User: Fold this.
Amino acid sequence: FAVLQDTHIKCYDTRSDCTKPSWSIDNAHTQLARDLDFNPNRQFHLASAGDDAALKIWDYRNGKEPIFSRTDHSHWVWTVRYNTFHEQLLLSGSSDARALLTAAASVCCDLDDDGKRLSQVLEDGVLQSYEQHEDSVYCAEWSAAEPWTFASLSYDARLVLSRVPRHFKYKILLAAHGHPQHQRSHRYGIVQQEIPRVKMSTLMKLGVVKVLTNQGQGCKIAACTFVQNRNIAGKSLRSSLPCPPPKPPPFDYVNKDYTWLRSLFDRTTHRFDDNSKVVVVEGPVAVGKTKFAAMLAEDLGMKHFPEANMDIHYKRPNGCDLRMFDSQIPEDTRTFDHVNFNLCPNHRLAGNFQIMMYIARYSQYIDALTHLLNTGQGVVLERSPYSDFVFLEAMYRSKYISRAVRQVYYELRAESLEELMRPHLVIYLDLPVPKVQEAIKSRRLEHEVGGRAMTTEFLTEIETQYKNKYLRDISTHAELLVYDWSGGGEAEVVVEDIERLNFDQYTEREEPKMKDWRLPREVDWADQRMLYTNQKFFLMNLFGIPKLNVPELITSADDAYERQKVIDAHPKFAYMEGYNDGGNLFKGKMSKYTEYSFAYETSKPAGETEIATNDFPASLLIFFLNFLCYNPHGVRDLSNECKTVEIDY
Assistant:
């Protein structure tokens, strides 16, 4: 009997000493071996599958190299089975939510009288991909009574019965009748004959997936079609290529609007080159994304966007950090960032923190798209709004947040995420949970080491959501590279893999790969550019959905008023950004206001004020009072003398 031990295959003979294997295949897989199955017709052949996404066939009389190897799955392969009657057919199930029917005819064909292998009917490779499941396929079995039927069982609690495609079935059956002199019994397979080849569609939709070992060597674990075509180029490759044709200089999108009139003369795609791509680096906590992303961006000549955090909300353009007011304002209105979450993950503000983190990633992703469309320079981001849900799910499974907060999060996500353009490439740096915990301890951040959030359950759920949900979903649009980062790695090795990817091969209109970046007309590119450059606030307003039935997301009016009063009392918050006193002749000060409320003073007796909320005439009144009224002591700040009412849209 044969057993799997780590990455090895070992066989024991019960008739002899069972303490030692009679034979073994060491390091049959680069990662954990998951399943094996013996060929029912050839006693020396066995098939194995493992976490390296590989399916291999071995002749254990010489186990140094497999006689057949395929890497068509994009994630762990849980099961592999020979067809009981037709040994050239293998069935496999994987965590990529697919069951694959694979042909291994080259190692299963009969030999003629001279010992030469007969021509094979089926070409080696994937014959059919079955994608009816929505989660990992853990089990797949052939029917014991009917050789063309099989069942697959998935983590989504779905049992699916499938059949071998009819045209493959007929090929095998016709080959059997076409060579009666070479026919064997029905049990022991069929001799195949040469017939015209039938073009089969490509079944790999995931691009390239590779594993980077501790020694820095790349080990391919998923298939990719390499086409001689210039794509993303690293620093070394760019230096060896001829100088590219000149293109327009970057557009100053920070100080200028990209208007319809400008779009008539300033074409968006004229700035694009092979490196005008969106690359997202993903991975667990403390894996080393920041260092790697910075090195990758430098090598590819792209702009690096560090991971978004709560500074986007708390650090204001006037130089103030809202955290400095925490000691003066009510607890429910204080700031709450990743430090607070790590120390107290069950806090009332934890749910609001995760929603604000999604908003921060969303805002940064818009900035990245704006930069690419206006300059033509590619961007490298650390995480994105598309992967933010993995932290929400980990918080929910760890009971840090309530079901109601989770529901609000997904409502906001559904309203907003479709407005963005998905990335071209996602790079996932994989690190097992024990290694993640070691990395957290090694970087010695007090709030992580001494906090209560980074539990084994929390980190495991992050890994599960990444591998079972996010990577599977994003790979339908983007190319995907996965690396084992247990021992670190080198950006140069990753750049070489990226240079082999062909992003321009997906040209069909309904092809999901790169669909967001196949805009048919220049005016469509201009519309997207104007949206992200000029109308970001429209996209950010998508988060203004009032939810009054979730207590964790609501602050009392009194607490909110106290908070605003403390902040407004600070001199730097008295006036709008960019306005200051220009002297007595021209007054540049403008009283503070928000988009949600306006206030003005009336002629009522002292101590009484009349409030106008969301009133356009009131805003005009403030404008004229501040700019037209002369006061030798400075313009009067009416907002400090009037109470305001905030309207929650």
In short: DSSP finds 17 helices and 21 strands in the chain. Residues 350-375 form the longest helix (26 residues). The domain at 2-172 is CATH 2.130.10.10 (Methylamine Dehydrogenase; Chain H).
